[in-house]
Amino acid sequence: MTIPTATYRIQFRNGMTFDRASELVPYMKRLGISHLYASPIFTATSESTHGYDVTDANEIEPSIGGREGFDRMVKTLKDAALGLILDIVPNHMAASLENTWWRDVIENGQNSRFAKHFDINWSRPLTLPFLGDSFETALSNGDISVKPDPKTGKPAFAYYDSYYPLAPETYQGRETEVTKLTDKASLVELHERQPYRLMSWREAPRDLSYRRFFEITGLAGVRVEDKQVFDDTHRLILELVHSGAVDGLRVDHVDGLADPKAYIELLRQEAGPDCYITVEKILGEGEHIPADWPISGTTGYEFIASLSDALVDGAKINGLRKAYDDVVGKPVDVAAELRAAKLLMADKNFEGEFTTLLKLAVAIANTDGISVDEKTTRSALRELLVAFPVYRTYGTETGLPPEGHEMLKSVVDKVRQGPNAPDQAGLDLITRILGNDVSEKASGDAANFRTRFQQLTGPLMAKSVEDTLFFRQHMALALNEVGAEPLPRDFSIERFHHDMETRLQRQPDALSGTSTHDTKRGEDARARLYVLTEAPELWSECIARWRKMNATKVVSLDDGPAPEPEVEWMLYQALAGVWPTMLQPKDETGLKALEERFLAYVEKSIKEAKLRTNWGDSNEAYEKAVLDYARYMLSPKNQEFLADFSSALQPFIRAGLVNSLTQTIVKLTAPGVPDIYQGSEALDFSLVDPDNRREPDFAMLQDLPAENDNPDSSTEDGWLSGRLKQHLIQRLLHQRRDAPDLFRKGDYMPLKATGNRAENILAFARTDGDQAVIVIVPRLVFGALNGDVYPSRGERWAETEVELPAQLANRRYRDLSTGKDIEAKDSIAVNLAFADHPFALLTAE
């Protein structure tokens, strides 16, 4: 198996085609990339902007070039000696009439050859929650009729531009008669004879007959645990792997599958030993990828969480928390906020999935003669789901593996001893079912319960944390990131080093990402916002001043002020993260461009919070007030605020750029395969999707200096434009390419800094035999350097040293950036190492 030395993620669609990607291959080669990492390329719905709503897994999307364009791109990659990794989506497909499999299921019900391809409960008609109201209301309003489908000519229920085919047995021999039906009673009767039920989209959370992807009714779960379904959905994928066109696969949302381990084992068997495979998997606190999964690791969200230990000021973050509490008007209990978000998901957003589990549990109790009523069972199930600390366990038909039993016992003990402890009988019942301690007669229902439970804990966790709590709790937005621990915790450099040592031991070939298509903000916005933890008092003073400047735009509504104080805090912090490095307060064009992106973020943020408005039930007065406030923040007429905001932000911008370089250097030298998300090799101040899926300025990015040019950190423009970051990535990626074993297998050795600025240094070494690279980078520089880093001033680091163990001492090192030699005894003086740049990358001679 060829392990990538670095990947480059490209988002196809929205104008990005295979031919355009081919044009970028020379640039990727010069940058030092080994593999292009492609977003889903298979045929998806016509309006798809991302490709995860697949309609045909065995066809390459025509709009981005189809098979011919794909083959041209592959040839270009091969000619440049670059590999290709594909993002595949085994968990779900589009529940769309464009999907011929799904359409066939609608038309033929259980008689469809694809009826078992989708995760559908066939004890009832297939629910189709795509109407604006109930079927009867839509019929009364004249929105539904029977017409010939324009594409097939067959009778169908026509609802605006959608045509839901009638089951053949309900009209055969009388097509003309059926299409002329106008009597509402007859149409209702015809609808009831179909294998499906058209219904309002509002009913989906509580009344759905198929498993969906998270809360998205337009994505139906696929049963890849069935070998025939696996074969049908992976035919083209495996063909591309076996032909050598594709070198690796990235498995989307592996936790959504009925049996992730069995799927991965089958994928490995079918793809072969040489295919590089990673999985999208969110790891909880202290959680690790199961050691027996035949993969190279995860796509790297846990790496972002580890970086926060290096870049957050653990000694001062409580000051930021207190400042936020003061603005809110009371101490924020994050644990209580998390519980509230999880309860919302269990009780409302996933009500249908919860009810299915409850019915199964009650049925099992009845089968085994266990005296537990529904109320008791409901309470126990609810509390277990809310208390679950990770995405899922990995039980099978036979029960839970040892680590699953251990996890379940821990959760049950926590629930039993907690303030909301349910009746013991209910907990015992759920524990017995999950552990397969049931009769043989009930074992089938128990296996189904176990699978459904495990497929629910992940979405419930993701939607309650990433898509609810992170939009409610605004203390430090940089920490509201996919894979991050939502509860307050300690941050320390020792913890970072421990994570990297563990990463080397457990998944050295996993991807290490800092920006993705799913992160809540771009890596450089996050790097800048980490700085707020270093200066909580100053930030608090700024917030108070800005709120006063814009106080006239706060609107009093019946349900409170809009925006409320905590949302104001969020708005200023989000704007601080996204503010372009060189934007001037009087640049009306720049402000307008930023406003468009910022307002979209603000609208999404307050809707995702689900407090005073949401996607399904909009509070228009509240939304207008908040958006008007945000719009005024960026109005060219609001010069007093804009001038103050821009000025106050400058030291945060400078310190953030230092954090940016530090996290970049760490990503490229620590254990793992660095993944560069399109455009983030320069500065990435993106907001949440869809903002982070915008196409970067590839023309600008391709204007890359020659490899041998030294990155210049002495000019402000190099920092502010992102050129320094881009050039440094190029330099380090070429180093990784030239010494792959050092960075893949080499030991990770934390190095201790001593002296005046010891707490402002992160240092470690990678060693492999005689090969060694020493990494010395700054951290927490806001106070130490007053945010002033360019030009580099080595004297500021006087009396600070990095100690070298015997293995690294008394050797000559070459600075990768300058080519200068450094003679090291038992330590390296930081002021010497930082003489030309505020970082040091030293390779052993």
TrEMBL record:
Its EC number is 5.4.99.15. Gene3D superfamilies: Glycosidases (3.20.20.80), Maltooligosyl trehalose synthase, domain 2 (3.30.1590.10), Maltooligosyl trehalose synthase, domain 3 (1.10.150.200), Maltooligosyl trehalose synthase, domain 4 (1.10.10.470). Keywords: Isomerase. GO terms for biological process: alpha-glucan catabolic process; trehalose biosynthetic process. InterPro entries: GH, GH13_cat_dom, Maltooligo_trehalose_synth_4, Trehalose_TreY. It comes from the Bacteria. Residues 12-736 form the Glycosyl hydrolase family 13 catalytic domain. Residues 503-522 are annotated as: Disordered. The keyword Isomerase applies. GO terms for molecular function: (1,4)-alpha-D-glucan 1-alpha-D-glucosylmutase activity. It is an enzyme of class 5 (isomerase). PANTHER family: ALPHA-AMYLASE FAMILY MEMBER, MALTOOLIGOSYL TREHALOSE SYNTHASE-RELATED. This is (1->4)-alpha-D-glucan 1-alpha-D-glucosylmutase. It comes from Rhizobium soli.
